[in-house]
């Protein structure tokens, strides 16, 4: 079976460096915070070209803590997408705010800016776009709308580290650095993944950074001195930081290889199904290579018979999940609902071999 993702292969490629990093931390006797975490934060800050990076326990924690650090809370509304991993909505609810769902652009699966105005109410305080599958949302239009209406913007960049937004006449900007803050996941399956849970917040805003750092460690600025109520235990451990420091220098090369694989898929599959649409403003890093087909489930079964793995991201939009049916009625977000019926993610990782690529392509092409 050719898997969608091959984390073992990634480890074997870096085994000597990763083993040495793990041994270094074990020998140090320091496992929570410390110099490895501080060094990773500095290296991420340099990579993203953003002054503040605050690591935390997961991508979900990054969203929750960022929302609180931005001042979002009970009575507030946050506009977001129904077509995302459920953590996006959970985070909004965890701070006491209400998610307001806006449908997606079917070309790129991200928030459709043309639909924002209809979702605006006197309680709207923020927009939470998701850079789905590794492609940045239409940040120019979203930021213009936010500025016009006095809203904050938190980017869910869990799937998009290294993706760029390419505004005309400006240098490309990293996903997660355009709004008031960006929340990133370091889950093992991500383009930059730890060997456990992890996440971080990136921001240009010193007040948000200071508040996020307080909240992530029990609301404390120093040990046993707590200045914020209801803080969190949300820390990245030194082992994960050391592993991520080994991986980070390879990220651009890996993302470039993902783009090369996507181009090969596009060339050979464009007449057989709907391949991803890379928007003119976006540099896509293909966390997932997600196609559309009206017979998605039958295609997935055919691929399985041919020894090809696939996955569905996501089989239900948020408003059709049992826990979230109060947010919007069925049929009210048709683009997201149609996408959930048709999307399929094919094998995508930097270590796919040519023979594996050819096998995936043949299997898709052979579907009648």
From TrEMBL:
One Pfam family cited in the UniProt record for this chain: DegT_DnrJ_EryC1
SUPFAM superfamilies membership: PLP-dependent transferases
Top-rank taxon: Bacteria
Chain positions found as N6-(pyridoxal phosphate)lysine: 190
One GO BP annotation of this record: polysaccharide biosynthetic process
Keywords associated with the record: Aminotransferase, Pyridoxal phosphate, Transferase
InterPro entries: DegT/StrS_aminotransferase, PyrdxlP-dep_Trfase, PyrdxlP-dep_Trfase_major, PyrdxlP-dep_Trfase_small
Record-annotated active site: 190
GO molecular function: pyridoxal phosphate binding; transaminase activity
Xref: PANTHER family: 3-OXO-GLUCOSE-6-PHOSPHATE:GLUTAMATE AMINOTRANSFERASE (PTHR30244:SF36), TRANSAMINASE (PTHR30244)
Protein name per its UniProtKB record: DegT/DnrJ/EryC1/StrS family aminotransferase
Organism: Meiothermus ruber
